[in-house]
Design goal:
Number of domains: 1
Radius of gyration: 11 Å
CATH architecture: Orthogonal Bundle
CATH superfamily: Winged helix-like DNA-binding domain superfamily/Winged helix DNA-binding domain
Oligomer: single chain
Number of helices: 4
CATH topology: Arc Repressor Mutant, subunit A
Helix content: 40-55%
CATH class: Mainly Alpha
Shape: globular
Mean pLDDT: 91
Distance between the termini: 24 Å
Strand content: 15-25%
Number of strands: 3
Low-confidence stretches: none
Strand order of the largest sheet: 1-3-2
Length: about 80
């Protein structure tokens, strides 16, 4: 859990639901590495959103450079790379 990364994520100027997904990822991340290992289904459950909705927001966050994603067998490791504009 990283409160520092959550605070940084809160400063990012992005739409609300996308920010919520980013904040949940930041909350799940390890402070030292900024990495969160979580499945799309787990992320969707925590966010109270559909899996497809979360998948779209994760794609947008990745394209915006806010996160990196490394695919594993059944899950993904997300590295938080929040930058405040």
């Amino acid at each position: 859990m990283s409160h520092h990364l959550v605070n940084k994520a809160m400063e990012v100027k992005i739409p609300g639901v996308r920010k919520w997904v980013l904040c949940v990822l930041a909350h799940q991340a390890v402070m030292s590495s900024g990495e969160a290992k979580i499945t799309m289904a787990e992320l969707a459950e925590i966010c109270c959103l559909s899996t497809s909705c979360v998948r779209d927001h994760v794609k947008n966050l990745h394209h915006a450079g806010q996160i990196d994603a490394v695919l594993l067998r059944n899950s993904c490791v997300y590295r938080i790379r929040v930058t405040v504009a």
